[in-house]
Amino acid sequence: MSRLIVVSNRVNPPAESGEESVGGLAMALAAALREYSGIWFGWSGRTTPEFTGRLAIERVGGVTTATVDLEAADLDEYYNGYANKTLWPLFHYRTDLAAFDRAYGEGYGRVNRRFAETLAPLIEPDDIIWVHDYHLIPMARELRRLGVKNRIGFFLHIPWPAHQVIINLPRHSGLVEAMFDYDLVGFQTAEHRQAFEEYVLNEAGGAQTAPGDLSAFGRTLRVGAFPIGIDAAEFARLAASPRAGRMRDLMRACTVFRRLIVGVDRLDYSKGLEERFLGFERFLAENPDLRRQVLLLQIAPPSRESVEAYQDIRARLDALSGRINGEFSDLDWSPFRYVNKAYRRDELAGLYGAARIGMVTPLRDGMNLVAKEFVAAQDPEDPGVLILSRFAGAAGQLRDALLVNPNSAEEVADALKRAIFMEKDERIRRWRSMFESVSREDVTAWRDAFVRALAAMRSERSAVAV
Ligand code: ADQ
Q1: In the chain, where does the domain assigned CATH 3.40.50.2000 lie?
Q2: Nearest atom, ligand 1, residue 25 CA
Q3: Cystine design at 393: which of 178, 229, 347, 367 (Cβ 3.0–4.6 Å)?
């Protein structure tokens, strides 16, 4: 059987099974690596004054990891620069925040080259290689340059934007051309896949040679939609744990006679927090009789704090949350709690379970796993209501959520009111259909679908090599 090599910017296998702070994605990839006796390769998270290319190989929780340090300029130009100041905002339709700087592009190319040079000696002829996310789009090109002929797949966790958006990127054609060095490219949704196809057909003069096969730049590539899921069974187990139970009790005790509305997001401008707060403010203004019946608890741990746009959004959210509480609080009560802290996964499961309403309203999101976690943690006898942005990839599967345009404070306020008054029968009906999808299309189904599709391919390149 082929070995699997997973490549991602950060490498985070669970130290031991059952660790409650590791995400479902890390768990699923670690499980696949154990099954295929593979290697997880990426950045160590450390910087050194100069790049050494020295590999640190470790065994963590039954998984072999191979990590390499980067130098400080790499971190600035590749990670904070091209990945998080150029591609992230642009791919989330924030052209206003996207920074275009030649040095970022050079740093991005350099780090991908360094990663490829460090990884290449570890690759054996039959290995299959699975590269993750926007940090590493040119990895296959760099590996091919070094003569690697293995099957290489790529999965994009964030949206692929519409044609008119992607063409804002200087040298966009080079980036797309580099994707044709993969054998298989996976997107979260059919919409993202179609946007990519449209670029290839209309901008790159490519053609569709068979369903799912695109040819351009003298090469052929298979593309597909592989919507990522959560480990639903594991999440249900977490929701039934003693810690989750304590969290549910705690939250119920602080919301007696009130309905808990919960939001859990990384503090990121793509998550629509400002718009959510404004929607909630409008709800409070329009419904004086319901004010005392709700508490919005928003959990948002800071992320990417060295990037200016993240400092700005944090300051705006601080001001807005203060304004809402200042305007609507009373001596004995306030409608809004805003917490900048991360919580363990079992605690989050308890929190979701205590909530009557989950608000997941990103402006754009590749998928959004919080929406699925919220569904997985509900009590089947008395489930809460999910309010979900129609611009999250998850909206393609969770059709029974209350779908909203997150930019419309009016729609968000109306959805809150509807969720508050929703009868139990309707809540159960909607939840059942969502739970069925979350359980069936889970993280293992996602991983297996991608790995099988890649393993079944005979790379054009390996065919040449034989
Ligand atoms: P993210 O943008 O990070 O992921 P998301 O899918 O919501 O977004 O995943 C966030 C994860 O972090 C969830 O598992 C959530 O539980 C956890 N988390 C969030 N806030 C937390 C808190 N306060 N404490 C602890 N944990 C917290 C990117 C893409 C998404 C895509 C995923 C996976 O942007 O669209 O769904 O990758 O492909």
Answers
A1: 4-229+444-455, 232-440
A2: 33
A3: 367
CB neighbours of residue 406 within 10 Å? 28
For 61, other C-beta atoms within 10 Å of its C-beta total 18
How far apart CA 304 and CA 302 sit, in angstroms, is 7
**Angle between helix 345-354 and helix 369-376 axes, rounded to 10 deg:** 70
Q: Using an 8 Å Cβ cutoff, are 60 and 16 in contact?
A: no
CA of 381 to the centre of ligand 1 (A): 27
The verdict on pTM exceeding 0.90 is yes
Q: At 194, list the tokens.
A: 């179609």
Helix axes 345-354, 242-253, angle to 10 degrees: 40
> Which residue in 101, 157, 163, 172 is the catalytic one?
157
Q: Is 365 an active-site residue?
A: yes
CA atoms within 13 A on the CB side of 260: 25
- pLDDT band (50, 70, 90) for residue 2: confident
10 CB less than 6 Å from ligand 1?
A: no
Beta carbons of 443 and 229 less than 8 angstroms apart: yes
CATH of domain 4-229+444-455: 3.40.50.2000
What are the pLDDT digits (tens) for 131-175?
999 999 999 999 999 999 999 999 999 999 999 999 999 999 999
Greatest Cα pair distance in the chain: 77
**Distance (Å) of CA 423 to CA 287, 291, 336, 368, 418:** 19, 20, 24, 26, 10
Tell which atom from ligand 1 comes closest to the C-alpha of 300: 23
> Is 172 tagged catalytic?
no
For 323-337, write each residue's pLDDT tens digit. Answer: 999 999 999 999 999
373 Cα–ligand 1 center, Å: 10
Write down the architecture of domain 232-440 according to CATH: 3-Layer(aba) Sandwich (3.40)
CA proximity to 372, closest of 342, 350, 347, 393? 393
State the chain's mean pLDDT as an integer: 94
